[in-house]
Amino acid sequence: MPVPIQPRAVTSDQCNGFLVAAITGIDAARISLGSINAGRDIGNGRKFLEAQLSLLDANNATTQIADSLLNNAPPAPADTNARIVSGLKAALSTLSKVALLIDNSTIAAVAAANASMTKALDGAQQAVAANCQTTVS
User: Fold this and answer.
1) How far apart are CA 21 and CA 51, in angstroms?
2) Does residue 119 contact residue 26 with C-beta atoms inside 8 Å?
3) Number of domains in the chain
C-alpha cells in the first residue's frame, strides 16, 4: 500500500533566492563580528554584543523559514521576513554608533559586517515587498 505524501511547506523560487541572500549575509556578518575582541574595547563592547544579539534574532527568523521548507515543519509565521528585516536594521543601527577609535582589524571587521548585513537586508526587504511566505502544499 503506498504511503500518502505528507503536505509540506513551500515558497517560490524567487523567495528562496531572497532567503539565501539573507542567510549568507547574516552568516558572513556573524563571522565578521565574532572576530572582534569586545573585551579589548570596553567602550564599544556593549554595542558589538547588541549587534550580535540583533543578528541572532534575524538568524533565528531565517532558521524558522528554512526549517519549515527543509524539515517538514509547519509554515513559518507571516511576519518572519519582517523579523529578519527588523533584526538586521537593529544590528546596523547599533554598529553605526561604534566609535571608530579602535584598531584596524576591528575597523575592517565592522566594515565587513556592515557590507554583509546590507546585502542580507536587501534580500530580506525584497522578500517582504514580494510578500514571501511559506505555505502548505
Assistant:
1) 19
2) no
3) 1
Note the helical H segments in the chain: 13-34, 42-70, 80-95, 104-129
C-alpha span between 63 and 69 (Å, rounded): 10
- Cα(17)–Cα(130) distance, integer angstroms: 12
Structure confidence at residue 6 as a pLDDT band (50, 70, 90)? low
Note whether residue 4 is domain-resident. Answer: no
Q: How many Cα atoms occupy the beta-carbon half-sphere of 137 within 13 Å?
A: 9
* Structural domain containing residue 90: 10-136
What's the confidence (pLDDT) of residue 101? 66
DSSP 85: H
Q: What pLDDT does residue 72 have?
A: 75
Give the domain CATH number at 79. Answer: 1.20.140.40
Per-residue pLDDT tens digits for 18-47: 999 999 999 999 999 988 887 777 788 899
